From TrEMBL:
Name used for this protein in its record: Ubiquinone/menaquinone biosynthesis C-methyltransferase UbiE
Pfam families given in the database record: Ubie_methyltran (PF01209)
Gene: ubiE_2
Gene Ontology biological process: menaquinone biosynthetic process; methylation; ubiquinone biosynthetic process
Single annotated GO MF: methyltransferase activity
Signal peptide from the UniProt entry: none
Transferase found in the keyword field: yes
Keywords attached to this entry: Menaquinone biosynthesis, Methyltransferase, S-adenosyl-L-methionine, Transferase, Ubiquinone, Ubiquinone biosynthesis
Database matches in InterPro entries: SAM-dependent_MTases_sf, UbiE/COQ5_MeTrFase, UbiE/COQ5_MeTrFase_CS
Keyword Magnesium found: no
Length: 257
């Protein structure tokens, strides 16, 4: 009996009505909460990852195929945690461009002045076709409104042979692992955030962070949606049971019909 293939998807998860009511409300909600908490983001993230985040991001980009001299687009750049590692690996921050819908997050970044940063959304990228050698996105997949449209945009702006690497936290396979991660991310981190944050919404964003992970479509459907966008050699690499790295390559040439 043949197992049905996972279907491509559009929304990464159903509306989380504890935070916003409809899909149309989501983008406004996310922009506001990221703007409001940008000053605390790096501090809380360092607590969340026990200070290991930079090393992990760098290694993930290497596994994704990032090399010296590549022209990089980082989607959902935020405060620049992935882009900073990309600039080290490329050897020149001017080769890295970051895009994010939150002006507050962009303003809070401490990236080199030669790196280009601009407001923009994954579903409508302000770049020409076949423009970048490498595209990265760190922990922003759950915040995209339409994965199919966004992944088609990723394929469009990559050069033939260009590589893609999307980092995301996904559910652990075991029930104990799920309970442990949920307790840490939805309980411990928001509690700590209340004591060390400067902004009142910081604890809320980290609760939302977990809730969106819990509600996110399974990795198999993310892989199917990347393939449906025309990307090739799509695969998922998993670290420590929860850190998913979605890797893909844009075809070198148009495939015969």
């Amino acid at each position: 009996m043949n197992t049905p293939r996972p279907a491509p998807v559009h929304a990464p998860h159903i509306p989380l009505t504890d935070y916003y009511q409809t899909e149309q409300d989501r983008q406004a909600y996310l922009r506001q909460i990221f703007d409001n908490t940008a000053a605390d983001y790096d501090r809380i993230e360092s607590m969340l990852a026990w200070g290991s985040g930079s090393r992990y991001r760098r290694q993930a980009l290497i596994r994704g195929g990032l090399k010296t001299g590549m022209k990089v687009l980082d989607i959902g750049v935020g405060t620049g945690l992935v882009a900073a590692q990309a600039s080290i690996l490329t050897g020149d921050p001017a080769l890295v461009t970051g895009v994010d819908p939150s002006p507050g997050m962009l303003a809070a970044s401490k990236l080199p002045k030669t790196m280009a940063l601009m407001e923009g959304r994954a579903e409508s990228l302000p770049f020409p076709d076949n423009h970048f050698d490498f595209l990265s996105m760190g922990y922003a997949l759950r915040h995209i409104s339409d994965l199919g449209i966004a992944f088609a945009e990723f394929e469009r702006v990559l050069k033939p042979g260009g590589r893609l690497c999307i980092l995301e936290i996904t559910q652990a396979q075991s029930r104990f692992g799920q309970w442990l991660l949920k307790s840490y991310m939805r309980g411990v981190i928001p509690l700590l955030a209340r004591f060390v944050s400067r902004q009142k919404d910081t604890a809320t964003i980290w609760r939302y962070y977990w809730d969106s992970i819990e509600a996110c479509v399974p990795p198999e459907q993310v892989v199917a949606t990347l393939s449906a966008a025309g990307l090739t050699q799509v695969r998922r690499h998993l670290e420590v049971g929860v850190f998913s790295e979605y890797q893909a390559i844009k075809a070198d040439r148009v495939q015969p019909g």
